[in-house]
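Hi there, hope your week has been kind to you so far. Thanks so much in advance, here it is.
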Amino acid sequence: MRNFYQSLGYLIFGSRLKRLSEYFLSEINEVYRKEGIEFDASWFPVFYLLSQHQPVAIQELSETMVVSHSAASQLVTTLKNKGLVNSFKNAADGRKQEISLTWKGEELLKQLLPVWDAINATLTDKIENTKASKALLKTLTAAENKLQENSLSESITGRLKH
């Protein structure tokens, strides 16, 4: 028997994605806790970007994460308060704020890299090695792209106009 969420199809699509996301983040945070790593899964995008190149402008961070500048700034403030990142003005354009990892942030990143490898390998095994879910990431990307083509709310209300 299918569960309640599965039986409602697209009527509860957002709720299913939210439940899956909350479960995933909770499990990942549990891994960090068990490994003795003081890290929250919500910090991942910032640390990943900084693991690829430093410094990163807060504007680049907000654009890459597809969040408001304010949301990116709040996350950066949290990481600054933890002593994990430094922020400073761009030398060429003093209006731009940039961030880089502190020594403490670099040490934390060294702990995180093997955990990220294990997360990736585990999810690949669990999802990609299952015939029914093998194309999950491609399907999710296609759905995201299709839903962003135009406003979902406008499409729905357009159907309601008689």
